Every structure is written in C-alpha cells, then in structure tokens.
Amino acid sequence: MGDILIQVNNLTKTFETKEGLKTALKDISLTLGMGEMAALVGPDGSGKTTFLRLLAGLLLPDSDCNYLKNNKGGFIKKIFGTKEIVKPENFCKTILIDNFCPTNDLEDVKNIIGYMPQKFGLYEDLSVIENLNLYSALNNQKNNAKEIDTLLDFAGLIDFKDRLAGNLSGGMKQKLGLCCTLIFKPQLLLLDEPSVGVDPLSRRELMKIVEKLVKENNIAVIWSTSYLDEAENFERVFFFSEGEKLYDGSPKSAAESMKGLVFLAKKEGENLRGLLRNILKDLQKEGKPLVDGIIEGDNIRLVFQNRHFADEFFLPKVEANPRFEDFVIYTLKSRLKALDGNFSSDNTLFNNVSDVRAPENDITIRAEGLTKVYGKFTAADKISFEIKKGEIFGLLGPNGAGKSTTFKMLCGLVRPTSGECAIMGVKMDENPVLARSFLGYMAQKFSLFGNLSVLQNLDFFAGVYGLFGFEKTKRIKLLIDFFDLGQFRDTNAEDLPLGYKQRLALSCAIVHKPPVLFLDEPTSGVDLISRREFWSQINSLSENGTTILITTHFMDEAQYCDRISLIFKGKSLITAAPDELKNSVKTEENPDPTMEDAFIELISRENNKTMVSKDE
Amino acid sequence: MNKDVVFALVKKELYQIIRDFSSILIAFILPVILLFLFGFGINFDTNTVKIGVIIEDKTPTTLEILDAMRFSRFLNVYMFESRKEAAKALQKGAIRGFAVIPNDFTKNLKAMQKKSQQANGAMNVSSVQHIQNINTQAVKLPEIQVITDGSEPNTAKFVAAYIQGAVQTYKTINNENSPKYNSKPPGISVIQRFWYNPALKSTYFVLPGSLAIIMTMIGTVLTALVIAREWERGTMEALLTTKVTKGEFLTAKYIAYFILAMASIAFCLFVIIFVFRVPFQGSITAFIIVSAFFMLGALGFGFLVSTISKDQFIASQIAGVVGFMPAMMLSGLIYEINSMPAFLRLLTLFIPARYYVSSISSLFLSGTIMYTIVRDSILLGLFALLMFVLVYKITPQRFDDC
Lengths: 616, 402
Known about the structure:
Low-confidence stretches of chain B: 125-134, 179-183
Number of domains of chain A: 3
Oligomer: heterodimer
Strand order of the largest sheet of chain B: 2-1-3-4
Strand content of chain B: 5-15%
Shape of chain B: elongated
Low-confidence stretches of chain A: 341-356
Number of strands of chain B: 4
Helix content of chain B: 55-70%
Number of helices of chain A: 22
Strand order of the largest sheet of chain A: 5-6-7-3-8-9
Helix content of chain A: 25-40%
Largest sheet of chain B: 4 strands, mixed
C-alpha cells in the first residue's frame, strides 16, 4: 500500500441553503495510500462531489472556516469586508494531502492533484490538441509536442487531434478530460463521475488506462460513481450515503460477508412477479422480512436477513454468488431498522395497484422500421419491435445511442423520417390524439411542477387527463395511499426527497390509468432502496396488464425486464430476454457473464462488423 | 503573472470567439443593425410634410401665397374645398396640418397696406399720438389660420414653422419685386448659421452618439456571457484546480474581448463615416484613446454581471437592461441633460456613456477639443478601474470563500 497520501480526519461540510443549514458531509475519516485506487460510490446527493471538491481545495471544510458565521452581509461585504479570519483550533488538520492542507497550501496541493470535474471540464469549441495545449500552459508546463502526442497515443486519441472536443463521443471526451488532468503528472487523480453518459465499452477502456497509470507511475486515484457494479472492479471502495461513510474496504470482502444469505429461486409455471410479491408479503407477515428480492432473468434473487430465515424458506433454491450490491442493501436496511425498528419500512413493496385499464389487444406497442435522421446524423436507424400486453420492455444503451429519440417517436413528440409506430393498434401518424391517450409518460428528470405541492401536482395531472369530480378525488386518494405520499401531501414537489419525487412522477404518469406506460430513465441518480421500491411498483403495474417501456443505463436493471433491446449508435443490436442475451456471449473463460459483459461483447462485435464493411 | 499562461488563455478566448458565431453576431452584425435603426429611426428633422390648404378667397394674392407654399421644399400641398374635408384628412393622418385663407383675406390685406402707407407718410410729419389713432381705427389683420396635429408636437411645430416660412417668402418676394408694396424700411435681419453641423442634420449628432449607447450594450453583453458560460459548462471548476491565478484569468479575458470590442468599434466607425457619410472632424488617435477607456469600463461591467449571476441567461438580461437603458436615457443623446430635473442630472454624472457621447460627438462634429477628450478619458478610465477592482474582488479562488 505504501505511504499515506490522503488523510482525512472528522471532515464535516455544511452548506447554507434557503431552508437553513444543510450538512453535506458528516464526520468523514479515511486514509488513502500512494498508488492506491479507490471508488467513491453513492447515489446523487450522497456527498461524493462535495468530498472531491474539498480534497481539491475548491471547498473548505467547516473546521477550517468560519464561513457560516462570517458570510452574512453578502456581496457588499465580499468587496469591502476585511479578510479577517479567526482560525479555529483544529485549523488545517482535517484534510492533509501529502502533508499539505488544501486550505492553506493550495498551490502545493494543486501540484499534486489532477481533478476532472463532471462534464470533464473541456472547452467544446476547442480541438483536442488545443484543449491539451491550453491545460498544459495553465499548469505552467512546457510540454513539447512529442510528450503530448505520447499522451494522446496512450489514450487512443491521436487520430482525432484536430477534432473539436464538442464533436467527440462521450467516451472520447472522457479520455480527453483525463489527458488534460494528466498533463502535469499529478500524484493524485480525482475523477468525478467519469462514466456518466459513456458506453460500457469506453468505460472499461478508461478503467484500463487508469489502472495502467496507477501501476506505472504510482498515481493514487479516487473515482466517483453511482454504479455499484462499476465499484466492484476496484480493490477499495468508499460507500457514501447521505453524507456519511458507510463502508470503507474491498468490495469483494464485503460481498464475501454476505455468503450463505443469497439465493436464486424459481417455481415452474408461475409468473415471477406475482411470485416475488407473494414471497415478500408472506415473509413480512411471518416477521422474517427479506433484505432484498429482485427478478433476475428467469429467477428470483433473494437476500435473507440471516441463515436461519433462509433455511426455513419454502421454495427450492440454489445458493448464488453474493455481490457488493447485496452488501450495500443489507447495510442500508440495517440502518433503517436501527432507526425505526422496522426492517422493511415500506409496504409499497407488496401493495398492488388495482384498477388499471387492461388492454384488450395482445400487441400494445408496435414499432416498425422507426428511423430518424437529423441532417447527416442518423439518430435512430430502422428500429422495430413489438411489445405484448403486460410486458416490461427495456431499451438499454449509453447516452446518445438513440434511446430518447426512439422514445419520442413512440410518443409522437418527434415525427419519424420513415417507419411507423402504433399504440394499442392506433397508428401514431393517423390519430396521434387517440394514440397518445393510451400513454402514461414519465420524462427524464421527472418534469414535475416544483412549486406545486404533491396534491396540487396530482390534481393538475388528473385534470389534464380529463378526470374530474368524485372519480378524480378517488383516484388521487388511491395513488397517495399506494405510493405512501400521505406525509408529503402538502410539501412542494421540489422539496421532496429524490425517491419520493420519483414516486410522485410515476403516480402523475398513471393518474389516468393508461394501459401503456413509458418511463424515460426513471431511476438515474436515485438511491438503491428507492430504486427497489420503484421496481416493485412497476412490477405490480405490469402484473395488472400495463405494458411498460423503460429506458435505463443501469445494467442490472435491464435484468428486471422481460425483454430488452440493446441500442447502440442508433441501431438496435439485439432484442431478447435478459438470460438469452447473457447466454449468447457465454464462453469458456466467462461462464457466467454479466449484463455488462454481454453488452460490451455485442458492441465490439458490431464495431468489428462495421470495420470489416468499411474495409471492403 | 505568467506571460505564457495569459497568452494561452487569450488564444483560447480568441478561438472561442472565432468559432462561436454568436459573439461575431453580437460584435459586428448587431451594432450595424442598431446603427441603421438609430440612423433612420431617430430623426429629429422633418423633411417634407403633407399639408392641406383651403382657399376661401380666390384672388391673385391668395394664389400667389399658395404658390409660395407649393414652392417650399418642405411642404407638400393638397387642396381642399372645405374645412370639414381637411379635418377628415387630418384625422386619417393623410395630412399633418392645414392652412385656411379666409374669405376676407385680400380685403384685409389691402386695407392694412393702405393703413401702413398712411402711417408711414404720417410718421414723417406727425407725432406718436397720431399713429396710435390710426391703429385704433379697427383694421382687421389679414390672417391665415394654421391647424396642426398637436398629438405629434414635434411635427406640429414643423408644420407651423414651414407654413410661416412660406408666407414669409411670399412677403419678401413681393416687397422686392413690387416697390408699390414696399411699405416698410428694411428691418433687422437675422442670418442663422449652425456651427459644427451646418446642415443641422440630426443624424450627424445621433449616429456618433448612438455609437456610445450601442457600444455600452455590445461591450456589456459580449462579456456578460463569457464568465457565466465557464460556470455553466463546468470549465470554471477545472480552471480553479489548475495553477491559473485570478489575475491571469481576468487579464486574458480582458485582452481577448478588448480586441474584439475595438474591432467592433472600428467597424461601426467605418459604417458611420462611409455608409452614413457623417463627417469626422477630430483625430482618430483621440477617438481610439477615449474608446479604449470606455470599452474597458463596459467590458468590466459585463464581467461583473457575469461573475455575480453565474447564469448566461440572467447575465444577458441584466446586461441588456442595465447596460442599455440608462445609457439610452441619461447619456444626453435623446434627452438634453440640461433640461432634466436636478437629481436626474446628478445621476447622469455616473453614466459612463454620457462622457463617451460628449467626446465622440465633439470628435465627429467639431474636431479634437483637448479639454473634453482628456476629461472624459480620465473619468472613463476611473470607471474602468473601478469595474476591474470589483470584478477582481468577487472572482472566487474557490467555490466558497472564507
């Protein structure tokens, strides 16, 4: 492990917001050695970015700053105020990087740290080489052209030297961002969510580059991410939740600790979703609630609270390899139990939305050769599929692959260049109003009215969809009960916790009992437990005959779908059930491929195909 | 301050400027559009006005007066049969005013001429008392009624003045041509001459002045976007973790946008001189010096707005409103500063555009007046300095400052 590079002692960071003080980080202590590579994992709002900014000296820890007391007075004081800082007792002891303190020795710390912010910090209207030259100069480096070429070669960008950064793909931007931070050979790399919006193949490539750096130059790395499966590839993981560090150590040993508690179960001839719901319900009644229960392809994956409960379980089951995710959900739920004595605090897990307009046709969504061309760019290329009643169908792919375009064509928001689609047998181009009336749509980022309360939002959407009077009141009451929104009835939507915002958005989308539900990245940024709850709600909707089309970039979530379509560069690479898909890439070296393995394999096959056809 | 860093940053800014069409649009297209608006839109001269004439008394004399009106290059005369018709035309806006030559005009005129001849004759022999007697002998004056559209006071004044002018012309001609009417001895005649703008073309004043207002806006809007953009695109975060200092960062921004803004001013100057043909009397050097000081202030103001708001949309709104409106209203271009109420007059002292307007219009119209140029340059320079200090102070070194 070597010498200690970062030392953090009891770090707390408080922000002043309109609603008062908000603690972003609570009493964090950790150390990181030279040349060590660690993942910083947590959902949005868990304090990852704040932590990295504190290390980089962009923010100051509470212990180094009487900012909160001094900051009253604002703008005028900023200009004319005296810069009299009363140094607190433990000044500059909270964060030490190579024995420098970011508060006092910012210049020295800048010499050590290479920091890549979210969105990579690139100038989109400068070319690759111009960006690099700029960052080289900004770090007072006199890199010669050869050095820069070596770096570009290393990152595989040498052929794109003169391309504008704005015209690079997500993966290439990410690599360029990395090059820009590497230009002065830092000892510590801080990467803030480098994998957001990047396809898994590029993600894996970046990981390899960084691993090589760590090995060759003894660079330490902190890589923040909200994907738990990504964190599993690291030797060391810090898991943050709501500003607290809940785990620090190797993800493998964390998963190991769950051994004997994770099982796969299945019962022939029974609907998996109904089975799962019944299992959850029964065990809860018996007072032996499950830690986790999800659908994984053709099986149900169960995580038990202890071995004893597992032994008593009534269905035939096989033990499965535990994952870091199992450990995380176990930790989170244990904390919840410690807080309010209830292991599964939420009864929405096995509630059922009764009362859905079940469709009569068998095929509810049909897309035929959907193509959208913007100028020279084909956003979606001949995408076809048919989705049956009650099916959960996933569109999986990185940002910019064409998921949203496909989605918008299906909703009638974008007119396809060619091809057609129909909802419940009604063609979108022939009768868009009728076709759309069958749809419930939950947009990315939830699109709620932030300054309306939960009740007002529901009331508005119900009104928009033509509900009124007693029917409306009844429906809203039902939704509030089902989604457990009662406590937040009069809270403004913007002040809701993210998980509840998501619930509200979903309830607004189904207020008119649509037979078809479109969900556009409904779970990005949401914490694990809320995601689980969300999926159980989705499952129950599907059980009642609602057809669900969902986009996601969480690989694991793809497994909860009945069928998925892999979208890459505007094309649908394959449409299949999750297990079929995984099996199709099974090899001797990798007998149990993950969803990500499957995705990467299929993308590289596609890339090879296009290369071959170009050569011809 | 590290020269290489500043150079690299300036280069980056210039690349961004060249590749981002919107800054070119703001710097070169927008000012020209505004110049055209100001050049043609704000015009205090009235060229030809349409008026109606009603002659109730058709005699050679009145027809001569009508000819005099028709002869005037400012009037476009339409004949009407009755006041009613003319009033209708005025309401419709077809004419801007009308003149009525009443029934008894010729009669009264003749009577008056007679009277004044008598008076003249009497003057030689008699006393003042006598004249008074004559005047009281109730001679009705030959009157022409002029009715104008008071809802547009400026035009109304012009109409009245032009008609009066035409009648004056008639009188002069008749006095010269026919000695029989030559009743009065030549009186005092005023010969008007308008220095600095002999043709009294308001565009000659408005265009140079509007340059100041346009440049206030352009300078502010150009820079209001750039720092906010760095915040929005997340590049500020990356910059803050490099070794760039505040000083280097701001210097580079200033240099790059100063170059762009000066190019924009030069372009506008070219348009004003060669397209609008406004003569330029002063020295170009003085123009450059004043403009440079002015521009530094305007750019600084934009940076200030941008740094405070950190949001491109809000910044551009603030820059547009705060940069443009006061300059427009209080620079003395549209409203005479001397006729403002005292407190507004005081306020104009803090509007940099005011000093720039004064310098520029004197440079264009009257030549280089050292006193004005030096005074305005100093004041504009002080404003620029103040802006720089403010921007420097509030540019953060971190996300939060203690």
